[in-house]
Design goal:
Layout lengths: L2 H44 L12 E8 L6 H8 L6 H11 L13 E8 L4
Antiparallel strand pairs: 1-2
Length: about 120
């Protein structure tokens, strides 16, 4: 066998080894991407984020209310504050809406604007 033939055979083997390495690398890449896709699918299907309790959508409205004898802002809040997070926040809004500086200054017969929340669109 001549030197030129040996070189040709050596180059062919070298090319075959290079192609084999590329096939292995390609196969590993496809396997890794497939594994990542499978893990993502598993997490999406089985590990959904905790769904928050379905909260109702509230719409804010105002109504006129005639203060009755013995009414306080606290008792009015008890009647109308459904949907509000805290009584204190509701009373603060009630005072601001009606320009009430001192909550002891409401009188029977006084007409005040009372905010309330409703799930219905009116």
């Amino acid at each position: 066998m001549t030197l030129e033939e040996r070189r040709i055979i050596w180059n062919k083997r070298k090319e075959e080894r290079r192609k084999a390495k590329l096939r292995k690398l390609y196969t590993k890449g496809v396997l890794v991407l497939s594994l990542i896709a499978c893990v993502n699918i598993v997490f999406l299907v089985f590990f959904k984020p905790a769904q928050a309790k379905e909260e109702k959508a509230y719409y804010k409205y105002y109504t006129s209310y005639e203060v009755q004898p013995g009414d306080t802002l606290n008792s009015i809040a008890d009647q109308f504050m459904e949907g509000y997070s805290s009584k204190r926040d509701y009373i603060d809004e009630l005072k601001q809406t009606n320009c009430i500086r001192n909550q002891d200054k409401i009188r029977a017969g006084q007409i005040i604007h009372v905010p309330y929340l409703s799930t219905e669109i009116k």
